[in-house]
Amino acid sequence: MANEPLGSAAKPVTSRWPSLFALVALGGLYAALPSSLLLGGPRWLLLAIVSVLAVPLVVTHYKGAHETNQLIGFVLNGVVTTTMIISLALLIRALPLHLEQPRQLLQSAAALWVSNILVFASWYWRLDAGGPHKRARRPDHSKGAFLFPQMTLPPERKHAAGFTEWVPNFVDYLFLAFNTSTAFSPTDVPVLSRWAKVLMMLQSMISLLVIALLAARAVNIL
Questions:
Q1: Helix axes 170-183, 102-127, angle to 10 degrees
Q2: How do the domains of the chain map onto residue ranges?
Q3: What tens digit of pLDDT does each residue of 72-128 get?
Q4: Rounded distance, CA 26 to CA 58, Å?
Q5: CA–CA separation, 14 and 77 (whole Å)
Q6: Burial class (CB in 10 A: 0-12, 13-18, 19+), 62
Q7: For residues 18 and 108, what is the distance between their CA atoms, to the nearest angstrom?
Q8: What's the pLDDT tens digit per position in 13-53?
Q9: What mean pLDDT do residues 146-171 have?
């Protein structure tokens, strides 16, 4: 940490907070689901797990234990991803059984759709180019699983636009995840890595289930 440039050390500090807020929001969305779509236990359980794991996540970041920080982040992402997929499966099961009222189906579908965006934005942000810490240590972002428009600019245009030391932060990956869930494609950000293509296919499939099957069914029976 002491040998890193001040500029590169400061980048991950500001970019990590939105990702942490996204995980807390996921816990809140899970708590808002009907009890029939919860895995078990109190509805605030996921929010409590996120809050507990957020403490060592912040501590390891400020202490410079980046490998431990990355590991805790993977565990946290894995927990919220698992609960989202289980809730989606329970919602699909409840659909033909008419276990939920139409309004609850719409609200549940909306909550799971937003959760899908936040979950995969967190994965893209944590996995791309070695993670946020490794990305911030580089002078600029020129290699990764996604080809952002800023990466394609020639050096003179990068300098004119102020992108000479550009590094993607959480909002860039959130925008990518939002486009994947709405347009079922990355739009202006081509995908280069195989693991990223697999994740984006999974995200699009979940979004398609929520929008085309669950929300449409709920609207039809209103």
A1: 130
A2: 6-220
A3: 999 999 999 999 999 888 888 877 766 667 777 788 888 899 999 999 999 999 999
A4: 18
A5: 19
A6: exposed
A7: 24
A8: 445 677 888 888 988 888 888 887 887 778 888 889 998 98
A9: 76
* CB burial string 152-183: b at 16+ within 10 A, e below: ebeeeebeeeebeebbbbbebbbbbbbbbbee
Q: Degrees (nearest 5) of the Cα angle 133, 139, 141?
A: 70
DSSP at 192: -
Kindly give, in sequence order, each residue whose CB lies less than 8 Å from that of residue 200, ignoring residues fewer than 6 positions away: 120, 180, 186, 191
Token pair, residue 27, equals 């816990």
In the three-class reduction of DSSP (H, G, I as helix; E, B as strand; rest coil), residue 110 is classed as helix
* Token couple for 86: 């289980």
Amino acid identity for residue 9 in this structure: A
Residue with token string 């959760």: 115
Tell whether pTM > 0.85. Answer: no
CB 123 within 8 Å of CB 85: no
With vertex at residue 30, the alpha carbon angle to CA 24 and CA 32, rounded to the nearest 5 degrees, is 110
Nearest Cα to 76, choosing from 97, 100, 99, 56?
Answer: 56
Structure letter (DSSP) for residue 184: S
d(CA 90, CA 159): 51
* Token representation of residue 45: 């359980």
User: Is 181 in contact with 117 (CB distance < 8 Å)?
Assistant: yes
